[in-house]
Write a structure and sequence with these properties.
It is built from 6 helices and no strands. By secondary structure, it is an all-alpha fold.
Length: 168
């Protein structure tokens, strides 16, 4: 039978202390990472100069943003006013309506028709539509001019009917 001999820690020979080869690591890193061009460093510094973790760039916040301590109603009024100002300052889009009528009755119903220019007096068109509606009101959403004209047409009818009643 064989007996196993074990070494005690005191009997072991100390290993020489090994230091990591610093020079080898530094030289391999230098070869892998070329120096950063100065133009790139300048561009990065410029880009991050005003960097902020805020979700709003600079001081620009959307119209719908309600700041801490601010009334939501006040923010809503501000937003509505801004949109109304934008609509007032915007150019009116070219709008059109197509009316399909037989040639025989066009001149009779719309005497202001100018076929060369392709125009008709808007008042005549609104009167034609109002006179031929069956059981509904004339609604025009989105265009303040049409809304005003429709209301003026209805007001004029009321005034005319009051005048007719007064003459009787």
């Amino acid at each position: 039978m064989k007996t196993l001999q074990t070494e005690t820690p005191a009997q072991r020979a100390p290993l020489p202390a090994q230091s990591p080869p610093q020079q080898a690591k530094t030289s391999s890193l230098a070869r892998l990472q070329p120096p950063v061009p100065a133009a790139s460093v300048t561009k990065a510094k410029t880009a991050f100069k005003s960097f902020s973790l805020s979700k709003f760039a600079g001081n620009a916040t959307p119209l719908s943003h309600v700041a801490a301590g601010q009334s939501p109603a006040e923010a809503q009024r501000r937003m509505i006013s801004q949109h109304i100002d934008n609509l007032n300052n915007a150019d009116a889009p070219a709008r059109a309506i197509t009316i399909a009528l037989p040639d025989a009755v066009i001149k009779q119903l719309l005497p202001s028709l100018n076929t060369k220019r392709g125009t008709i007096d808007l008042g005549e068109v609104i009167n034609l539509i109002q006179n031929n509606m069956r059981g509904t009101e004339f609604y025009a959403n989105g265009n303040p001019t049409l809304n005003r004209l429709a209301i003026q047409g209805q007001v004029q009818k009321i005034i005319d009917s009051v005048k007719q009643e007064a003459k009787k």
